[in-house]
Specification:
Elements lengths: L1 E6 L3 E7 L5 E8 L3 H20 L6 E6 L2 E2 L4 E4 L4 E4 L1 H9 L3 E5 H12 L6 E6 L3 E7 L2 E2 L30 H5 L1 H8 L6 H10 L3 H24 L4 E5 L7 H15 L3 H5 L2 H4 E3 L6 H7 L8
Parallel strand pairs: 1-4, 4-8, 9-12, 12-13
Antiparallel strand pairs: 1-2, 2-3, 5-6, 6-7, 9-10, 10-11
Length: about 300
């Protein structure tokens, strides 16, 4: 059996996958931070989910994790307090099975394709703390020359917009990323973006401006994916996608509004390509289980 893990800032989602692609077992557990904590959390999750799956031997372990990855090492996983960690080496030494490491958004894209295979490219747009996408073409991840394919959150779209964490001004992520929105909203709460949308519904001036920035940024990301990749499906995922139809509806409305003057954009039928990844989907962990090694495309 293969093991796949989606390592997040607070939770690790682990699945055991049979040779036919079916999920034998699943387990969610807390993620510890720092190099040692991340490795310990992964090893514990592997042991727990493999025990639940039975006595089958582990043939491979795939890890989806935030940050930059090269198949073996993860860098700049800031939400996990990891600067540079040879993760595959560390987990292989303790679990005794080959390990591959991939960015979590790219792993989720591969998992979304596996859960609902369809002809044509698929793009998964992660609307979460940051903004990024994963693209699957012919059933394989499209990583680009250096692995940066899909990092559309750092495309500037507003010269007068807020400064992005990457140092540029007016990036999609600075307008529509969860962390940026929460910082600009500056009100405490378990889910600041939901609070922001609630306040916008009540006519709060700042909330209305921030909601407008969010839908403008998310719609721009969808248009970029459509024009650069022309995917048949654009799957919305991530923490903000947990808002479900409420989020999808306002983004779809922005796509309609911004396409009103362009017959070309209307011909792309962007709203019809959008779907929301169901809450609780195992897509990211499943996708991680399908990664054997980085493949240049």
């Amino acid at each position: 059996m293969r093991i796949g893990l989606d390592v997040g800032g607070s939770k690790t989602d682990a699945v055991a996958v049979a040779a036919d692609g079916s999920i034998l077992a699943r387990r969610r557990s807390a993620t510890e931070r720092g190099d040692v904590g991340v490795v310990d959390s992964i090893v514990a999750a592997v042991e727990a989910v493999s025990t639940r799956a039975g006595s089958l031997s582990i043939t491979s372990i795939g890890i989806g994790i935030p940050g930059q990855t090269d198949g073996r090492t993860v860098r700049h996983a800031v939400n996990l307090d990891v600067r540079e960690l040879p993760l595959a080496d560390a987990v292989e030494a303790r679990c005794g099975a080959p390990v591959a490491v991939e960015n979590d958004v790219k792993a989720a894209a591969l998992g979304a394709h596996a859960l609902a295979p369809a002809a044509g490219p698929l793009a998964l747009l992660n609307l979460g703390t940051g903004i990024a996408a994963g693209v699957v073409v012919d059933g394989r991840l499209w990583r680009g020359a250096g692995g940066a394919a899909g990092e559309i959150g750092h495309v500037p779209i507003d010269p007068a917009g807020p400064v992005c964490a990457c140092g540029q001004t007016g990036c999609i992520e600075a307008l529509a990323g969860g962390r940026a929105l929460a910082a600009r909203w500056a009100r405490p709460g378990a889910f600041p973006v939901r609070d922001l949308l609630d306040a916008a519904d009540e006519g709060h001036p700042l909330a209305l401006r921030l909601r407008a920035d969010f839908v403008r940024g998310a719609a721009a990301a969808i248009r970029l994916l459509a024009l650069a990749v022309d995917p048949r499906r654009i799957v919305l995922a991530g923490g903000l996608a947990a808002l479900g139809d409420r989020m999808a509806d306002i983004v779809s409305e922005e796509l309609r509004r911004s396409s009103a003057a362009s017959g070309f954009l209307r011909s792309l039928h962007l709203g019809e390509r959008i779907e929301v990844l169901p809450a609780g989907s195992p897509a990211a962990a499943l996708g991680a289980s399908l990664i054997d090694a980085p493949v240049p495309v």
